[in-house]
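Q: A reviewer asked whether we had any structural model of the full assembly, not just the individual parts. We don't, so I'm hoping you can provide one. Inputs are below.
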Amino acid sequence: MNIVVCIKQVPDTKGGVKFNPDGTLDRAAMLAIMNPDDKAGLEAALRIKDETGAKVTVLTMGLPKADAVLREAMAMGADEAVLVTDRVLGGADTWATSTTIAGALRNLEYDLIITGRQAIDGDTAQVGPQIAEHLGLPVISYAADIKVEGDSVVVKRQYEDRYHELKAKMPCLITALSELNVPRYMTPGGIFDACDKEVTVWGRADLKDVDDSDLGLKGSPTKIAKASDKVAKGAGEKVNLDPTESVNYLIGKFKEKHII
Amino acid sequence: MALEEYKGVFVFAQQVDNVLDGVAFELLGKGKDLAKDLGTDVTAVLIGSGVKDLADQLAEYGADRVIVVDDPELKEYRTEPYAHALASVINEYKPDIMLVGATAIGRDLGPTVSARVKTGLTADCTSLEIGDFPLVAAPGKEDEQKHNQLLMTRPAFGGNTIATIACPDNRPQMATVRPGVMQKIAPIAGAKANVVEFNPGFTPNNRYVEILNIVKAVKTTANIMEAKILVSGGRGVGSKENFKLLEDLAEVLGGTVSCSRAVVENGWQPVDLQVGQTGKTVRPQIYFAIGISGAIQHVAGMEDSDLIIAINKDEDAPIFDVADYGLVGDLNKIVPALTAALKAELGK
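A: Here is a predicted structure for the entire assembly that you could use as a starting point for your response.
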């Protein structure tokens, strides 16, 4: 069985952010991690590998430095890694990104493709389902549990107030929630191997069945009109008093505002 | 087909078990504003099985027309038959704008459909308006500036940034819209819409999945998005048991308890009560942030509350930057004292 896990290197959004003049993210300038939902997807793939001997390939589209998350994935146990990188692919929205990744996936054999539900930078949750659409695959989003049963997968698909237990024939695409599992650590042996292994690097020319008009910033139907750091809501009053005085202060304010 | 020929504001009227989701009414409310600015009307797209009777409710909340796609294959949500339904409606009726709620359904249906009809999709929008793109015409390129475009504003980067997005060269302009942000109108009793039935035909293919089982959560938790007063606790509360202090305060005020992501990850409260970027967006009249540090991802979910009160022992906690009133101190002492004082005041 072949599993391809699509992962993304993302800025750790607990820090600050920087922009290019055209409004797109200045990714080169920030501290980077493997996206949490993707890591859970990778862990799910590795558990299937543990049970069935499946082959796990990780794939990422990004800057050359995204090689780091591929190495981390191999150190966790992924067998092979592909980096899709090319200047013409930059500034892509989810249409162009999913087109690019689908173009890369067409070169690989897969029974199951796993992506994270959403990345902590774009926060759109769109790329996974759009890759499935480009490849004509069934898609199951928001997976809280994944089991392989013969030629099918059985997935717990999460909604706000319920879940569906779904069965889909492979090949298919699943988007993983970080709640799916607790990912394993890299092993020392794994790290050693990961340093030695080759990462396959693909550029635009390696993408199969894609048009230039659907790639990169120019190929993105959504365009950024304006982007900026959030302006902090104006701070109000702050008091540092003993508990009784603090409570009196607040009750006083409630009375002023006719709340009580 | 020329972009100008796409007309109308369309709204996906999400229903589950033949009950319309609140976000459908919110989208109709916003849709009416957009339609007014564009001089067009609002159409609700209702997809399901045996759902025609819901059309009247949609009319009462602002739909001028309801397109009903009714078929047994649509009884429960599954990506493929629903995507086929919505994409077929779009291809047949050619709307200028298509809005979908950013729910667990919408964030799966939206991207699938937008890719199928080959248009752009902007996710989790918190603000929508009609305007120009580019916002300011480049000198000498005024005739390239497009008017009457949908400008879609959304947070990204875990809430650290605000971006305004346009989709100038593709139609429809599609957006998923965060629940709890747009306002529904006061319903107009007896309003009727033009109801149109449309069925593109449903033939199962490789993309159809099988539903083996449906398990509903036992409804023990309140809907925090409807609460007027929220008493919210974070990691600082310390334990599941200590949430009793917050429950007591909520009870005196007639409010509801909610929490931060850290609390859910520690297993102290269920995920339905989580406020924040990956939780729910709330805008109550009063929001108590107790033992919550105020990380951007949490603030993104509650900063539009009318009044924010923070209680935290760390005077440098970022929550104090968004609070209207901040009390620096030990919540274990302040909260019970506050509850007692309010009981006394309200008992008067």
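A: Points you may want to mention in the reply: Chain B has two domains: 3-197, 224-347. Chain B touches chain A through 87 residues (CB under 8 Å).
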